[in-house]
Structures are given as structure tokens and as C-alpha cells.
Specification:
This protein has a single domain, classed as Four Helix Bundle (Hemerythrin (Met), subunit A) (Up-down Bundle), CATH 1.20.120. With 169 residues, it is an all-alpha fold. 82% of the residues lie in helices and 0% in strands. The protein is built from 7 helices and no strands.
Length: 169
């Protein structure tokens, strides 16, 4: 069930992007809120079932990346968002994906950290405010960039600790 909710989030990307590009932000907003709720529900279902398993640990962050970044790219296209925070988020996401791939190749699967969950929350919040037409969405987007890089540092620290045994500051 949790993985189904995650896949639903990915499937919502195209209708949301088409809605944004067609100047139907109300539809995009409703679908984005639905997508954010699928993230909340799949997390609750996974916790209720004792965890999401390795597939869920990899699929959920992937779905979040596809969901958030696709919507942000559509918002760049219509002039709502600057490309700079989106590029910074893309760089962070590619870096975390590389780190997760290296970890997986060494037999270790990292789930989302609390900072990673906070990053996703702030990204979803930014999307909702941006689609609703509120300028505060831009500030929340920049906040999510800051949280994204804090969480990246946290992932690097966790990786280094897991594979070297050394606690890094």
C-alpha cells in the first residue's frame, strides 16, 4: 500500500505540470496537495507495517524528487520561480542520489533522515504557496534549499560514520 501511494505521487506529476502550463493553477494546487498527502499517508502506512523495506526506502525519496523538481521546472517555465534555487536543489538531489547509490553498492540503504523529511515538507509547503499565488512561497523555497544542504551534510556524515566508524562533526 505504501509503495502504491508513492507511485501515485509520481503519476500525479504529468497532470500537475500540464495544469501549470495551461494556467490552471487551481487544479495544479489541488493535485499537489493530494501528492503531498500521499507522502504523508505512505509514511504512516510504512511505519504501521514496521518499515517500508529497502524498495520503499529508495522509491519514496525518488518519488519526492520527481514530484518536487518537475513541478518547480513547470513553475520556471511560466515565470513563477527563478531557476537558481531549482538548480541548487537539483545539484543536492543528484549528490544525495550518488551517495545513496554508493551506499547501496556497499550493502547499506539509507532511509530519509529527519532533516531530509523537513526538506521535503518545506518543498511541498513552498509548492502549495507558490501555486496559490503567495509570494511567501519563494521564501519558503529558499528555506528548503538551506534545509536541503543541511540534510546533505547530515547524509555525508552518516555515510562516513557507517563506513569508517568515525564520528564527524
Amino acid at each position: 500500500m505504501a509503495n502504491f501511494m508513492t507511485l501515485l505521487r509520481i503519476l500525479l506529476v504529468l497532470p500537475i505540470a500540464v495544469s501549470i502550463l495551461s494556467d490552471r493553477n487551481g487544479v495544479a494546487l489541488i493535485l499537489t496537495i493530494l501528492g503531498a498527502l500521499t507522502d504523508l499517508v505512505d509514511g504512516k502506512v510504512a511505519r504501521k507495517n514496521g518499515g517500508s523495506g529497502d524498495v520503499g526506502k529508495l522509491l519514496d525519496p525518488f518519488a519526492d524528487k520527481v514530484f518536487v523538481l518537475s513541478i518547480l521546472i513547470a513553475l520556471i517555465e511560466v515565470g513563477v520561480v527563478s531557476s537558481i534555487p531549482v538548480i541548487l536543489l537539483l545539484l543536492r538531489e543528484f549528490s544525495v542520489s550518488l551517495l545513496r547509490s554508493i551506499s547501496a553498492s556497499q550493502g547499506m540503504v539509507f532511509g530519509a533522515s529527519q532533516l531530509g523529511k523537513l526538506k521535503t515538507f518545506t518543498e511541498f509547503l513552498a509548492l502549495i504557496f507558490l501555486l496559490a499565488g503567495y509570494q511567501v512561497g519563494t521564501y519558503i523555497l529558499w528555506l528548503s534549499v538551506g534545509v536541503a544542504y543541511l540534510s546533505f551534510y547530515d547524509y555525508v556524515r552518516s555515510y562516513l560514520k557507517a563506513f569508517t566508524g568515525v564520528n564527524y562533526p
